[in-house]
Amino acid sequence: MRYDIVLAGVGGQGILTIARIVSGAAIANGWNVKQAEVHGMSQRGGAVNSHLRLSDEEIHSDLIPKGQADLILAVEPLEALRYEPMLREEGAIVASTNAVANIQSYPAIERVLERLCRRTNHVCLDMENLGRAAGNPLASNMVALGAAAGYLPVPADDLEREIADCFAAKGERVVEANVRGFRFGRAAASAYAEAMLRGIPPSAARGWIETLSPAHLESDEPLDLAGVSSAPEARLSGAEAHAFESVLLDAYHEGRRQLYEHEVYRLIELVGAISPPRHVFVPKGSAVSAESLAGFPGERVVCKLVSPNVVHKSDAGAVVFVSKSLEQVNLEIDRLVSRHADDVQVAGVLVVEFVEHAFQGLGSELFVGIRSTREFGPVVAAGLGGLDTEYLSSKLARDVAVAKAPAMDLDAERFLAMFRQTVAYDVLSGKARGHRRRVSDAELLRCFRAFISIAKWFCVDRGEEGPDIGELEVNPFAFRNDRMVPLDGRGCLRTAARAEPPRPRRQVRCLLAPETLAMVGVSSDPNGFGRLVLRNTLKAGYPVESLTIVKDGLTEIDGVRCVPRVSDLPAGTDLLVIAAPASAVPQIVAEANDKGTVRACIVISGGAGETAGSVPVGEAIREAVRAGREGGEGLVLLGPNCLGVRSAWGRYDTFFIPDDKMPVEPGAPHPVALVSQSGAFVVSRLSGLRHLRPLASFTIGNQADVTVSDLLWTLAERDDLRAVGVYLEGFANWDGLETLRAIARLTETGRTVAFYKGGRSESGRSAASGHTAAIAGDYDVCRTALTEAGALVAEETREFGQLLELATFLGDRRVDGTDLFGLTNAGFEAVAMADAEPSFRALGAELEETLRTVLDAHRLGGLVAPRNPLDVTPMADERAYEALLRAALARPEVHGAIVSCVPLAPRLSTLAEELSDEGSFARFAREWRNETAKPVVFVVDSGSRFDALREAVRTAGVPVFDSADEAARRFGRYLRHRSSTKVRAD
Amino acid sequence: MPSTSTLLLGAEAVAFGALDAGIVGAFSYAGTPATEVFETVQAEGGVWAVWSANEKVAYEEALGVSYTGRRALVSMKHVGLNVAADPFMSSALTGANGGLVLVVADDPGMHSSQNEQDSRFYADFARIPCFEPANQQQCYDMTREAFGFSEAHRIPVMVRLVTRVAHSRANVVRVPPEDRGPGEPNPSRPDPNDWTLVPANARRRYRHLLDIQRDLQDELEASPANRYLASGRRGILSAGIATNYVREALAGRSGDTTLHIGAYPLPVRLIREFVDRCNEILVVEEGFPFIETRLLGLLGVPGKTVRGKLDGSLPMDGELLPEAVFRALGIPLEATPTDPMVAGRPPQFCKGCPHGSSFGALVDATAPYPDALIFGDIGCYALGIMPPYRAIHACVDMGASIGLAHGASRAGAHPVLCTIGDSTFAHSGMPALLDVVHSNANVTVLILDNGTTAMTGAQDSHATGEVLLQMLRGLGVTDLTVFDPLPKHHADSVRLIREAIERPGPSVLVAKRACVRIKLGTRATPLPQSGT
Q1: CB atoms within 10 A of CB A193
Q2: Cα–Cα distance between A299 and A325 in angstroms, integer?
Q3: CA A943, CA B487: separation in Å to the nearest integer?
Q4: Does A765 have pLDDT greater than 70?
Q5: Quick check: A698 and A638 in contact, CB under 8 A?
């Protein structure tokens, strides 16, 4: 074994002392050593180095051959970079970040560090600072040695002993400071390495290490990395931040909204994400210099047209591969420019290093992008890269094609977990057959962290701070030595949507249970909408004495007292229902706000912004609300263009549905609430799911003020809710993000949110957009993010109803897993259940035995073999059903059951008139619910003759489905959802 | 003393080899990369080891020891041998009595030198034997062997080092000193006429030198210093340290025929056998193409391809690097190119260095004279060539500044100044100043007296302080000004220099302030008592 080290620094930094100590420890461990040094003139502040070779065999050369060193240990960063050509590909760099800038041409330090940190194996630390912490800034060479100790093939204890020997002559204090420096270096380096493994940017890791106390560094405890900030301000030094901003500003001031490839590289590089290939931008009319071309590795370079009009370069024939001769390259540059100059605006040509990377089949390249969205703020996406990105993404199942998520509440670790579910990860991590691992998780984390940071800080409305980034993406990343190398990048500037200021929660609560209620726009026509609202509210039990109507010229309507004007309303009116025409609303709101008497209002009227003609009215309403908010806690406004609210909490009902078309269902309400943008959607659901009887239903219309998230947050405060159903077509600005937060809160507190998102067709995507919008479209992001937040997202309205029913009626059931037991009297249903859902596991021996006994007891033994799902044949009666179900639910491996009957079997009492029989399913259903905490659903797949059976079982609190396969599919999904959110709720 | 193994620089190993061979004295003038040879002897103590004024003197002192029948070591860098060439060339004729070993350290790549030289040419020139160690152990072994060889053949022997051997450490096994014990004179006494090179004696001695060449060659032909391993038709002939790179590159593969040379005169019979066997020959040596040139003669080797420095397979200049040897052997090494932002970092004046302020004053003092010529000399103050001073117009060899200035002033240049350090002045500046004074030349000499030989690590200076002033007066200098070149005295320093320029005839200024390194406590050891 051989270990070759290049020690580097500036004359006087103590390189030779390091060499002496390592040599001593190595010899003590039986190694052969050779150590070449530099003496003489260079020791006067010049670059000095020492080659230190350790081997268990004879060492021939005193010098390490170029490209063969295992480690560069440098007490100065530029000196580390100077000797990088000595290092082999996988070699490590351990370097101090403390520049000795004793030359005029010292490059920008952050560029030097960035180069060093591109190495997979590197440790860059402020060693002077660590030396100072150890008691002597001159001990920074020992800090460096300590930081490298993990790489050296000699035990750290032996190194410490050598340090003590080496400094013994200088006294105990010097020995102590140097040994401590060594230990601090070791501790800091291992913390640094851990941070790198987690993809934390080097500068953030360093910043965090600087905050550690000596006690921290000396303890053997593993360091807690939770304190590492990933905010770019925390990690962008002043110079980097300035550089970042000036890239954006330069483009902006040129009147350009597209960012060029090299600008994208620069931005991402500045936050520490990538190792761009060597590149140089050659402005139109100039040529590349021999000097600059010589710096490119390899035999070939790539010339790419740089134009604000050409986004998809390879499609436009704007990419050329050229052999690396000055003449050739400049010729191609001229050709490229002249070929395109007539058609598009040409800024110049980007000459890029030709990156040698074998194309290894589909999915061997990666796409990463961010974009600002109106609903969720910035969004990040990653998936299969390359030319086929969009094609592949469209052909693959959505969840495995692209990982995507709103960035604001995201950390890189969470996003990596999502990315792990994708096909791209399977390929890149070598999990897919025939692939080897191309990139480490740490490198992915580093990349994601950078993109997420840029998203959080720059894909948002920054006001006067600077231009906002609309999109930024790299497609594709290739992989070279575990480093992600971008082969193309694009981006654009676009003003991001701004979130509205939050609505005061106290006011929103008034919508749930207003203690005082007023109405305006109640007409004298008894069939008018306003009158309907009034009647329904009175019918819902709202106390007349708390009710006031604003009506000039009348003293009362339907026994409710009237006041002439809004300003005459009693102070502290919780809710004002406005049934007046939209055009009158701004005035009403202004009046209500004027005296500050009204806390919330509902605007039923439409024609307030939904059509082009009514936009001014909509704006006027918003303006009136905004004006009230400015002076203090102005009223909140629900609507316009909605049905308002039906609330059992508040005993009021603004739905203007005639009672005979949708009578209030008898019985106590169930612990479920509905929030819907569409009134019709809600009333359709309520009419169809009569037994659901929600505690409250909200329709939110245009969301001119109160948004879906406001209601969800308010609902999350209620402890009498088990489920919430949401129908939504579009979020208000950034309200998607807030909705996710509210859903996460509801989920954490054990509630289930069923979500149906309407309005999925993508609009506003232009040919000039990048890939991010194409492969992570609005609905995609929404669906994934809702699911991620814990919602059950329904693709169809029927499914929505079923999921909501399950959530409502089974929300109190105990869910320990997803394994189902199926029980039916029809062979086809047993087959259909098993086909629809994989959760019917084979029976365990014990359960099988029990079932056999039960079957025998019911004389079914000869007919039926115990299996799952179990077909009991039409010979089974309700008692057999009951005994079998009880036996199954008693087993811990059974987490839920589907009971299905073909009610036509003669032995069953399933007709309306038989339901009161002793042994009917209706009675059993009540018993199951009481006897067991496990969830059970019921299936009746027969005609309307058996509606009474369905109704009776539902009344017992058991969800009923119309077909066995659908029941299996939905129930399976619900249980999986409950299992996965259980952890969070716990 | 039992055998011991220690991590030693090549230069240190040479010193221990000499000590274990029983030298009574070591002689040297400091010069990288040879300095540590002498310093090690000095640090070990027990023998005479005081820095000499220059290499010529050092060589003569060592030769004097040898004439008494005792062993002496003289060490110097390659350009030092130019200074010592006179006694060196003639000592080949007088021969040695006690073992006399000259260690010369060449500096290929000019890490710390003003030229590249290959001292094997000197050995060949003087017709004396030369050993060329390839590693630190050989430094020790060959130095010891050289003393015996010197005495056996009554001839000075050269040990040729290069920077990379001298300044690289490896484990070296020392063996107990020779039985004859240190300090005991060579029992046989040659005819003193041999040492008196009047023409009659010199002719006889030169004939003798020519006559023993065959013996030297025969003996070294069989020396283990040369190693021949016959194998395939590709042959690799390498010498000294170059063999290490060959072995590194071949990494144990044995398909090639190899011949390693470690001792000169060249083993002609071995080389013939080697050449006969091989079709294609690569000659790898550190320094000049010494062997390659001899192998090819004027007309080459018919029927064989010989590659090396002359055909460009290996670089002619610079230090031989392993990657160059790898490439010549057809083994490419992958390496990333140096990042273009890596700027060079040349050495510079230490913080608070008195030379810095001296040059500051010099630059300001000569500012009114656009034609002023300033001749520099060898030492840290050669850095006066760097920005911001850019104050030196020439820097050639030790002590040259005064002679160059004198010459220029004779050609009519004015004003003409020169800067020289105290140690360099003692080394070879004095005769030149004597000339200046003697001929009353209009030259301003600025002696930068920092009290030490700073650049090589603060060795003793023979001409510093009061001694220097006395020497100057003794040389006949009457226009003598001493000042302290502290930055706070800048205006005074400028005025003094300008006044000296304006005064006709030779003016000598002494800028007197100790090297900051001495202040830091790295003063050289005090003089020992007489060694024998």
Answers
A1: 18
A2: 9
A3: 109
A4: no
A5: yes
pLDDT digits (tens, 9 = 90+) for A257-303: 999 999 999 888 877 666 788 889 999 888 888 888 888 888 899 99
pLDDT tens figures, A131-182? 988 888 889 999 999 999 999 999 999 999 999 999 999 999 999 999 999 9
With vertex at residue B44, the alpha carbon angle to CA B42 and CA B48, rounded to the nearest 5 degrees, is 45
CA neighbor of B478 nearest in space, from B487, B489, B486, B469 = B469
- Write the CA distances from A307 to A131, A219, A248, A263, A334, integer angstroms: 50, 56, 16, 12, 14
What is the separation of C-alpha B477 from the centre of its chain, rounded to a whole number of angstroms?
32
b/e per residue B140-166 (b: at least 16 CB within 10 A): bbbbbbbbebbbebbbbbbbbbbbbbb
Q: Between chains, do B339 and A10 touch, taking CB under 8 Å as contact? A: no
Closest CA to B248 of A326, A815, A31, A2: A2
Domain residue limits, chain B: 4-185+192-221, 227-328, 354-519
Of A36, A60, A89, the CB nearest to B164: A36
Q: φ, ψ for residue B337 (rounded to 5)?
A: -70, 155
Could you tell me which chain B residue has the CA closest to the CA of A79? B342
Closest CA to A489 of A510, A508, A469, A503: A469
Closest CA to A413 of B169, A405, B226: A405
B residues 455-474 near A, CB within 8 Å? 455-457
Helix (H), strand (E) counts: chain B? 20, 19
Overall fold of domain B227-328: Rossmann fold (3.40.50)
Strands B507-512 and A517-520, by their bridges, are unpaired
Per-residue pLDDT tens over the stretch A482-538: 778 888 999 999 999 988 888 998 899 999 999 999 999 888 788 788 888 898 899
Buried-state track B179-194, b at ≥16 Cβ within 10 A, e below 16: eeebbeebeeeeeeeb
Residues B255-303 have pLDDT tens digits of: 999 999 999 999 999 999 999 999 999 999 999 999 999 999 999 999 9
CA B48 to chain centroid: 20
CA B353 to chain centre: 26
Q: Which CATH number fits domain B4-185+192-221: 3.20.20.70, 3.30.240.20, 3.40.1190.10, 3.40.50.970?
A: 3.40.50.970
pLDDT in tens, B98-147: 999 999 999 999 988 999 999 999 999 999 999 999 999 999 999 999 99
Indicate whether A854 pLDDT > 60: yes
The full set of domains in chain A, from first to last, is: 2-228 (3.40.920.10), 230-277+358-496 (3.30.470.20), 278-354 (3.30.1490), 499-641 (3.40.50.720), 657-811 (3.40.50.261), 813-985 (3.40.50.261)
> In CATH terms, is domain B354-519 a member of 3.40.50.10260?
no
Q: Do B335 and A295 touch (CB under 8 A)?
A: no
Three-class DSSP category at B208: helix
- Name the residue among B167, B336, B347 with its Cβ closest to that of A46: B347
pLDDT recorded at residue B246: 96
How many angstroms separate the CA atoms of A177 and A171, rounded? Answer: 10
| Chain B hits for A10, Cβ within 8 Å | 345
User: B4-185+192-221 and B227-328 share one CATH topology?
Assistant: yes
% of chain B beyond a pLDDT of 90: 80
Q: Which of B37, B25, B117, B31 is nearest to B62 (CA)?
A: B25
Test mutation, A62, A106, A117, chain B, max B CBs within 10 A:
A62
pLDDT tens digits for range B348-382: 888 889 999 999 999 999 999 999 999 999 998 98
Helix (H/G/I), strand (E/B), else coil: B440: coil
